[in-house]
Amino acid sequence: SNPPSTLPFPPQRPFPPPPARPAPHPTPPRSARPRRRRRPPLPPRPLHPHAPPCRLLSRLECARGPYTLLLLLRLSVPPTRRSLPLAVSAASSLRLHLPLALSLHAVAVTRNLLPFAHVANAFVSLYGKNGLPDSARRVFDEMPTPDVISYNALMDGYIKAGRLGLAMKEFHRMPQRDAVSWGTVIAGCAKVGQWEEAVALFDRMRGEGLGPDDVALTAVLSCCAHLGALEKGREVHEYVMQSRSRPNVFLCTGLVDLYAKCGCVEVAQEVFDWCPVRNVFTWNALIVGLAMHGHGTVAVKYFNRMLVEGVRPDGVTFLGVLIGCSHAGLVDMAKRIFSEMEGRYGVSRELKHYGCMADLLGRAGLIEEAMKMVEKMSTKGDAYVWGGILAGCRMHGNVEAAEVAARHLLELNPEDGGVYSVLAGIYADAGRWEDVARVRKLMDQRIGRRNVGCSSITTDQ
Q1: Would you give the distance in Å from CA 155 to the centre of its chain?
Q2: Whole-model pTM?
Q3: Nearest of 392, 423, 382 to residue 406 by alpha carbon
Q4: Which residue has the higher pLDDT, 253 or 56?
Q5: Could you say which DSSP state residue 9 is in?
Q6: Which of 1.25.40.10, 3.30.2000.30, 3.40.47.10, 3.40.50.360 would CATH assign to domain 350-448?
Q7: Is 394 strand, coil or helix?
């Protein structure tokens, strides 16, 4: 017999052996396997009724895109107050689509959608952008409760049509205004040359505690540049630095133009180099500013840098470079740039470019070359062209060419007293006193009373 167990627990029974696994069935060949029945495809999800017009809006580069959109609206899905403004926005992209806009207006009247403010606002904006402020006004007057967007669209239409007075009238009768309202009228005043009024509106806007948008800031910077209000421009610059972490290209161009026109060319260069983004207008503001203040060599330097960075120059760029070459006496460089304008850069020569070349050649004493250039022009010379030649004749005492230039200038403007004075001075330098008396007598007969000149300065008080 087995001895008794000394374990603290009774012995366990041994585990039974695992059952034997059945042999696997042989795998049938692929051709013998039964095919599973595929589920039928789910039906396509029905498109929202407004999906086709919305998708088509992304393809509006095609000239017939809006017409296709109108076809979809008419044939497939009736327009709604949500889809119709999209179609109106598409039609307002080009004046070519104005007949389409009229058709959409008729659709809105038929479907009784004009009582909705955002639908009516779309038509007010459409007519304003296409230079039809009276039509925009009729839509505005039919609105039951026009909102601030309605007033902004109407004022923008008036300003685009040159009716600043009516825009200001609507601005003053608005129940409430936003930043767009102020920016619209400030830009409108700047557009027509009412720079003091624009700056006053900007100060009034800031006084009411409303932050200006980029349109208002760009417009008031332009006004400060034209007025020479450097301190006010610095105030706007400080506000831009505090409120804009990355100013857009329009603000950057406005700041460069401000300092360049006010003679702070070093600051203009610093602001230009600081600008996060630049376009051709930014380059033009700096190049023209440098040229006007006698920094012709630096202007040419920035012109070459502009070409290296791949920015394509335009007519204003060449005008600034030619002015800079004229003030710096860079005759050969100006000739080369002037000759390459059309062939290399594809920029047509205008009368202002010929005027710069005439002034440059006249300053250099190349009067005969300037006269030959004018003879080869496809159009007749204007006051800038002949004025540049006359100024060169005054510097170098060329009486014969001065008489020709003065005759052309007086044909353009017989009451220009400056031409008589310059011609009399040229005769006096040549000792032809009889001609001096004749010119002065002729000036008194044709002009009579002369306008009194005036100047203005700004002090630091």
Answers
A1: 19
A2: 0.77
A3: 423
A4: 253
A5: S
A6: 1.25.40.10
A7: helix
